[in-house]
């Protein structure tokens, strides 16, 4: 991975700023012959787009995605696919304060130090609006995966919001609430907590879990493109993410070897595991169990509470960030995490074809 | 990253199996003119090598590193550096059981499924012996960094072992104990716990923290080669790692925005931060604060307690793993984590030269 | 290089088909702070655009380039730059014959065999219209080079058309004729020959020479990203190119060692060479002399003379290619070759910063 | 391609200097399960090794290749393969003159300018000894290709030596003479010419042709990893190469469209072409015809004739290059070109599996 491109074989290059005319991505390495159209992609865009509930930014973007290349008569051609999303609600305002001051917890200061200048309008390139392009690319990946791996299912949820967390994974009800909470009994409490937080002009962090069922065994390229390595990189590249876990994650440190190793039995269709502490990955290669990835999203730093900072000229000041910000950016990170999971799985599916040239080791008769 | 290579500009390609004749790596992209010799590298090799205390594997390897290319009259030439470590203590034994059975929690089964065959001797390529090559490469990186970033200091410690953890970071005493524990008051308890565990034929996980002080601001290549993205990938690629955290890590989920964003003041030499929840990285770019990375290592699955598993032919069995295994592989992961940190920092230092072509944004007069 | 991206550090990803709504490219790795605007890019676009003289395709495209990202207040930000060119003159017509038949000498048949389907409208992705995106990217590269290497001058010419060739390099008059011919005395003859050819419904090949003066010594990354390696790849990737030469090129085979090696003297500003058989590159690294690259462009296969071919269903047929095609595609390849030269030089300038970390070997006192 | 690695999926990283202890390469991306042993590789090494006839360098190297990793019980494991060749005949001598002076036509001066220092012993990294590692890697590629593409045949010949050239391609007799000349009637003349040249203390250039028959249609990744692009880069990366041609090559410039486009008929097994001006590649993708690649090798600059040059200190001098040099380095470039052809074909075969995910377009029935 380098710069603005991710993926080995299914390569996505994103471009665009929060308040520029448009943003988008080039999807390179998509196999030919797959049915794709704008409606299919829009389905996923709508899950991430702003303005969907009172718990997310009130910026109004249609996030309408256009396919400019790489699809002919409804099918992919195997050439580069250009996806473009025009920005329509870049609110015109005075950016004077933000242009001269660095918001604590933002990329303002590091972009300035690295590049010597920055597009301060809405965070420019460092804005989470960049993730719209990822969701579009993820839509392409899902269409391909539907062809190549029937039965694959990728699902995400917010499993922790601040100090509130749940162990339930009621996947069928996740989309019934605006918080992507997988525990229907917890939704009311979580909403109340978030309402209170907004009134206090504050924000809160979250943990997102992405689950992929139906992934074939054998995906992952040891040693430095292990499946978990690439998933960790993919999730850590999402704005505001500070930690990534596979399976037991950080809690693996607390386990004993006799507890942690998932025992193996033989089932009618192949190996069956007694547990899934590994999160579906051993030695960097998928086992065929569910992939389980979690990531922590820090609370948005764009809050109305005044915070100490400095200006470009070195003078000290206090700043509050007005604007239309998410009190819990974790909510909209769920479809982004799903999109990254789809891209990484497809990437490794294609990579594996090159690596092993069709080899698969049998177990049993 | 792909296959057996990591890094963008400082590229390390590792090779070799646990019980083959040798292992090593090619270091490509090392700047010319840097003083390097085998003794300098051996210093770091000795920190990771087996047999150092009763708490690590009793395999006896000198881990003597040879420089075969890329260094002329004591200085790097800018061409590819080959580092080779011969294996000397590949104990000859009957691998019959392991050759036919998959150890639970190991890469045995996934390598078989992916590649159709595997080098079962000591885990072959999936063995943690691969990390010896990383430590050698890390030694090269440290030599270059000593030239380019005087004052840079990379230090690692085991900050949690099973359920025992410490918040102390007494860096000066870390190497005084065989557990890389940064809390001198805790060492005796941790050693006692580990002794008990070995008697129970079990193993335990750990959390390792790597700290880098003196890293210049401005390193990191948004969006998909962010400094934290690359650190996450680097650490997750180490054997047995299941989670990676930057700064607050997973705990960032529990914080409020008003708590989490590090306030900024102006000091005599530039920006000064009131805290370091960010772990030294904002928007994927270093702030100049200490880089703080943690990763969780699962307990080794190679234990003497019998575990249910299957054979290649699909029949079920129980297995115990004899051999010379680490009761807490986290211990020897500390120098590996340090090496990866050194490689990633140097990689981004070189990458930044290309990216920004010398630009740096000033703050203040 | 892979897929639709070229370059190591200055990375250009192109997208778009001949008859799709638009085409363009993402330029990644452009240093920050460089002044760029659409007018600057348009200057180069206009040199390649169709309809410029009677000797090139009569398709009417404004080839207006838009900057959609990566530039803020007139300066590059160091983030990905999106350049888009809308197609406006995709003539609506019946593609029935071309959809079912493979034009000899075209990519029709190989795209079909590889991808199973193809965008047959005007050649789709295999059309030379793709090179418009390269010229746009080359415009960005030139703007950066103007900052980093004052005095650098990149010039191209058609030095052979069919069997007519010239050894003159009167660079100042090249743009005074529509054939990019560097020999003012030859222009009339060449034009007459091309007029005759058009009347015969035929086409002809050409040799293009690209010359870069003022390139600093030391660019090139041995062994597999040598400057000549990358130039060869860059030029060979242009549509219809069948051969690439550096310096003496194929004629180097006929020389003796005593003739070929360029002798070195010491001048007031450094080494001075008595000749330039090497074309400015030794061991894959620039010497500081003029870079001299030539490439052969085959005659366009889209001619009105009937040719034997087959249809997708395997039946045999004859085909003539109507449409607005260039009788000598070499003409419009000149600005494309210049653009590729600019991109490769900048790419290596940035790469060298990372590789050598600022080292340069002095010669003399 | 970057630095010391070539290939997209079948990646070869070479290391080592002419007079260091050893040289070799890491082959990454080799599919698992392929039978490989040292004898198979040695067969190819012996074709390139020095000392084979009076027409090549008299340096005596066994060029014995050792497999240090990636092969288990005689089969590839899918992990990185390390191949090492020890240098045994690094003649100890006084390098004083070469250490201080730059040989005209060599990389001495550019390595000095770029890196600030160089391994002057025998050319160090810039020596053609590096190509030994390529031939070893090519041996691995050939073993894999023998499995994946039965019937594939790669053959090389020296088709021009100085001004002597032949149009005959009597492949069966090529190995019957030490010059790899494909024209048995010309051998005696060529040998006489080379004998005369050696007596005159001079050297001469050559053109090498590499032919691959049995390559399947559909290989090549437009736009920037076209099969011809990658072949051009592969050949141009070989020491002393100054030009590369595909099919008609530079002569394509002299042809008319009505002559150049290869007409297509339908044969019993698919398309049949009436000619092969294209050299087996259209639009960057293989047609299934023979791949035909030629490259020009300049005469070695290491000759006994005195030449003007400068020293590191800037003073002027004359130099003659003693030592054991090839009067026509083109001879030993033939097996190197074959090796590169094998690597590129395998690389694209693997890449195509990822790109198209198994798609192939049918023609006919």
UniProtKB/TrEMBL annotation, chains A, B, C, D:
Its EC number is 4.2.3.5. Reduced FMN (FMNH(2)). Its cofactor is FMNH2. It catalyses: 5-O-(1-carboxyvinyl)-3-phosphoshikimate = chorismate + phosphate. FMN binds at residues 125-127, 239-240, 283, 298-302, 324. NADP(+) binds at residues 48, 54. GO terms for molecular function: chorismate synthase activity; FMN binding. It is an enzyme of class 4 (lyase). The keyword NADP applies. Pfam families: Chorismate_synt. The keyword NADP applies. Keywords: Amino-acid biosynthesis, Aromatic amino acid biosynthesis, FAD, Flavoprotein, FMN, Lyase, NADP. GO terms for biological process: amino acid biosynthetic process; aromatic amino acid family biosynthetic process; chorismate biosynthetic process. Pathway: Metabolic intermediate biosynthesis; chorismate biosynthesis; chorismate from D-erythrose 4-phosphate and phosphoenolpyruvate: step 7/7. GO terms for cellular component: cytosol. CDD domains: Chorismate_synthase. It comes from the Bacteria. Belongs to the chorismate synthase family. Homotetramer. This reaction introduces a second double bond into the aromatic ring system. NCBIfam families: aroC, PRK05382.1. This is Chorismate synthase.
